[in-house]
Specification:
Length: about 220
């Protein structure tokens, strides 16, 4: 016999969503980035942090609300997506206004960043430091940067240049935002399709009540 439909569907579980995990990392990166590189008196600082936080919180809230409202889930997931789009623009503005390049997705530095699959702020910081060493080594020696792990370990440690480091971190944040936005677009499309096929809480309530009455 087919399992009876429950009134409250499984919900929550947002911590397992890759989009939530990436959004959390984006938030951590943004808090640290703004603390180091954005004037504390600037409104942009608070706006960037709040946009990053909104991305995380609305994914979680939408997931939790999905048990009784698919409509709310879609709405909040879309709010998370919109917040990250706002944050994307702020990072782009930073790079442009400081005269730093916005790296192409296939730029070697970003390819190395994506290959690392950073899961924490410390992972991102370690990548940025490695890239700074590459920049300094290339500038001082005018030689090709060694690619193998064994060779890269021999590059001498150099103090980070704050401006160049900020450009690296901004580009890393944009890379993560691009991935997260792509995942959220897919989530929204999937949620919308589910809503179209199954309806929302009101339709489910009617079906469940009809089934129970038929049983009696």
């Amino acid at each position: 016999m087919p399992e009876k439909e429950g009134l409250i569907q499984p919900h929550g579980g947002y911590r397992k969503l890759v989009s939530f995990q990436i959004a959390q990392l984006i938030y951590d990166i943004t808090v640290r980035f703004c603390g180091l590189y954005i004037d504390r008196k600037s409104r942009t600082r608070d706006q960037m942090v709040q946009a990053a936080r909104s991305g995380v919180q609305n994914i979680a809230e939408g997931s939790q609300a999905s048990g009784t409202s698919k409509k709310t889930e879609i709405k909040l997931t879309n709010v998370a997506r919109a917040s990250l789009e706002e944050l994307r623009l702020d990072y782009e503005y930073f790079l442009r206004q400081k005269g730093f390049p916005q790296l192409d997705a296939k730029h070697p530095a970003l390819m190395r960043f994506k290959a690392k699959k950073c899961l924490s702020l410390e992972d991102v910081r370690a990548w940025a430091e490695e890239e700074r060493k590459r920049i300094v080594n290339t500038a001082s020696l005018s030689l090709p940067v060694p690619e193998s792990p064994s060779q890269s370990l021999s590059v001498p440690a150099c103090p980070l240049n704050n401006l160049q480091s900020s450009a690296l971190i901004a580009n890393a944040a944009l890379s993560k935002i691009n991935i997260c936005c792509h995942l959220l677009d897919r989530q929204i499309a999937s949620q919308a399709k589910s809503f179209e096929n199954e309806g929302g809480f009101t339709e489910r309530l009617y079906r469940v009540r009809t089934e129970r009455r038929a049983e009696k």
